[in-house]
Each structure stands twice: as C-alpha cells, then as structure tokens.
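Sequence, please.
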C-alpha cells in the first residue's frame, strides 16, 4: 500500500502530457459556453467545502482538499436592481477588478459603487470576489472554480506573499485548502478560507501545468459571473451571510 501511494504521488500531474484541454473543449463543447463546476464555501462559519461529485445534486463535503491554482483573478459585479436569481449578466462587471464594462463602467478603483456604504447594510453595491481555477490530482483533466468572498481575501493575499517570492508563481505548488470559523467585529460568523503549500510541483509537472494555465486563461473570458455575489453581505468583511428573501 505504501509503495502504491508513493507511485501515485510521483505520478502527480504527468497524465496531462496526453491531454489538451483546448482541443477537448473545441471538440466536445463547440457552440456551448465554457462551464466549470464550483467548489463552494458555506456561510455562517461552516468548515466543510462542497466539492462537485458524480451526482450534481449531491456534492461531496470535505474539510480539506488540495489543488494547483492554475489561474486566479478579481471579479466585480454590480446589479442596478436587487438580484432575484437567474443567469443575467450584471449591469456592470469586471474580470480584473480595475476596469468595469457596462453601466456605469470605467475605473473600479474610483467608482463610488465600489465603496463600503454604497450598498445595503453598509456593504458595497458592487460585489468583489476572487475567482480561482483549480486542478485537483483526482480530477486531472477538468478544472473547478472556487470563488473567494471578501472575508477570505486577506488570508489569500498573505499566502501569495509567502509563495510567490519563493516559487515565482502560485501554480508552481499544490495548495492545501481548509476553512476556519471567524467572527467579524459586527458579531457575524463567517467561513474563512486558509491556504498552505502541500508540495512543490516536479520539473516534469510544471510545464504541463503552465500549458494548462494558458488554456484556462483563454477560456476564462467566456465564463459568466457568480450568482452568489448578489447575496446579503456582511458590512465589514463583504462575506455572504444568507440569501435574499
């Protein structure tokens, strides 16, 4: 058993050498929008992730999982009217956190809708998140998306500041993801993501991961906004607390 585990760890992401995500997406999803399954963070201080499983209606729940962060970017979404569900695009959105497209559009950095107090309960009218495209060793060929709410962004920033000086890129390592319960100064409990380096990719693995990163970057431009951005948000952390009634 021990030898089998060692062999699996050594194999890692080398199976990617026989797989091309772009070719598969073109052949199998011609005419369809790019779609990635989501890893979900619970509200209210829960410490179990919801991971996509074989049955879409019954996701797996886990305390921890590991994956390579293939690509990550800011995601801003503003709806003029209260969001009521569905897949309608926001009135104004940004995939880099700096340049909004739509109404009002323009610079996100100076936009009054991107300031605390501009929305309900002291939150921002424009919701900010960080979208991570992750590749797990168990699901070797298709990435999943983890959308980080505002309350997890500080811990993610600290993690990147540890990883990037040492390993150059966040996709050079396998990251371990966990959750902890945190409480804001307003007394609200929320689930905060935590990050740690599990292992460094081998010299053989990294070029394969780097190639998939470029493919995911291209595909990410066609992925829609996260519907959970429109849920009620804690005024201090920006953390989703509960659905709108």
């Amino acid at each position: 058993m021990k030898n089998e585990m060692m062999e699996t760890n050594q194999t890692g992401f080398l199976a990617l050498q026989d797989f091309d995500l772009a070719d598969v997406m073109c052949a199998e999803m011609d005419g369809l929008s790019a779609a990635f399954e989501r890893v979900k963070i619970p509200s209210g201080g829960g410490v179990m992730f919801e991971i996509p499983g074989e049955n879409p209606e019954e996701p797996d729940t886990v305390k921890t999982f590991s994956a390579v962060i293939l690509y990550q970017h800011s995601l801003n979404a503003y709806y003029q009217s209260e969001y009521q569900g569905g897949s309608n695009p926001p009135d104004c959105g940004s995939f880099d956190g700096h340049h909004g497209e739509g109404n009002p559009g323009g610079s996100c950095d100076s936009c009054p809708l991107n300031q605390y107090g501009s929305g309900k309960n002291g939150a921002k009218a424009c919701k900010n998140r960080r979208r991570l495209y992750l590749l797990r060793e168990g699901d070797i060929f298709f990435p999943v998306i983890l959308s980080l709410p505002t309350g997890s962004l500080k811990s993610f920033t600290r993690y990147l500041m540890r990883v990037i000086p040492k390993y150059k890129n966040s996709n050079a390592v396998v990251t371990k993801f966990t959750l902890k319960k945190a409480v804001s100064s307003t007394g609200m409990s929320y689930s905060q993501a935590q990050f740690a380096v599990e292992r460094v990719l081998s010299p053989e693995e990294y070029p394969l991961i780097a190639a998939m990163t470029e493919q995911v970057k291209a595909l990410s431009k066609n992925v829609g906004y996260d519907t959970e951005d429109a849920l009620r948000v804690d005024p201090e952390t920006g953390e989703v607390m509960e659905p709108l009634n």
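Residues 1-10, 228-232, 237-245 have pLDDT under 50 and may be disordered.
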